[in-house]
Amino acid sequence: MLEICNLRKSYGGKTVLDGLSMTVQTGEIYGFLGENGAGKTTTMNIVTGLLAKDSGSITVDGKPEGDMETLSIGYLPESPEFFEYMTCREYFRYIAAACQYTGNIEKRTEEVIGLIGLTPSIDRKIKGFSRGMKQRVGIGCALYSGKDLILLDEPTSALDPQGRADVMEIIQRLKEMGKTVILSTHILSDVERVADRVGILHQGKLQLEGSIQELLRANASHVIGFEADGLTPALREEIAALPFAEKVEGKDSSCYVTIAGDWEAGSRGLFRFLADSGLTVHRYEESRPTLEQIYLKVVKTHAATQSWG
Prior knowledge:
By secondary structure, the chain is of the alpha/beta class. The chain folds into two domains: 2-216, P-loop containing nucleotide triphosphate hydrolases (Rossmann fold, 3-Layer(aba) Sandwich); 221-288, YebC, transcriptional regulation domain (Alpha-Beta Plaits, 2-Layer Sandwich).
């Protein structure tokens, strides 16, 4: 659906995108992550034709950039603005005219408003909407003309938990409709909830990319902690020698084992070892890896490399 190759962009001598290359597959939700200033919004603005690139290439649904009017892209910017004196219905009629929608405008307007869950407020002025409701209006604008690739820049920013849940539900519906969604956000738990694949942008380059499960298995630490009577130094050494044990810590009856590689296989292996050892285990808990661990690891690693380079 979207292919970006060696994209570069600088502002006044400051490099923002330094050879960015990434691919987003048709029908997937792609979590586009990075700290403030990493270049996420710049990338989205270039893809949508709102900003000129310095070099590189972009292909959307097999079509090269150049004639942005033919590209199938819908976009929700980070801070959308609306004509708040309009009602929800009136605003989407305006959007229909702006995007030169050629179908049944009234039917499409009610369809989109239903999709974003604002039917009860269809004839209310946007001025009285909450921030979450306005974000839904923004998503509706990105969807209105039926584009296949939807770019959402911080769609849950500053929303309360219910507002975030509502937006995530809409994104799930978009996937069910066959849309391709690029989701830029700092709320990593939201990405874990809906994304099929993730790309982490740092210092203008894509530093890590893959499915969440692939990244969790390869990059994050899975720690198992337990307490057991009879945990001798010799048994600790046996645990440390197990092929899946990356690190063993703790003292007295407590032990914490960091699992290397396939953490599900390691968890089963450690459980079997403890069962066969004859130890009396009083506590056994798993600390599963998170996307946040991976993100912080990538940012810190590449920041350290940059500072030493």
